[in-house]
Design brief:
With about 70 residues, this protein is mainly alpha-helical. The protein contains 3 helices and no strands. It is rod-shaped, with a radius of gyration of 21 Å.
Length: about 70
């Protein structure tokens, strides 16, 4: 995943671009932490989507098995 856009950061963190640029220069660890958090969030979202797909597949298999038994 690429870094989130400044517009997205502005909206989510409720700060302006100047503040973000200042953080990037004067507080690089904070800025990097924010960027990494967005990457983690994106990965977690993808994993959740995969788990939901797996759940649907398992439910279909259960239904098929129930129908065979009955």
């Amino acid at each position: 995943m690429t870094a989130p856009s400044l517009r997205k950061l502005e909206f989510d963190l409720q700060v302006n671009k100047t503040t973000l640029h200042n953080w990037k220069k004067s507080r690089p660890k904070l800025y990097e932490f924010i960027i990494e958090s967005y990457k983690d969030r994106d990965i977690l979202k993808k994993h959740l989507e995969l788990l939901m797909e797996q759940k649907q597949i398992i439910e279909k298999e259960i239904d098929i098995t129930k129908n065979r038994i009955n």
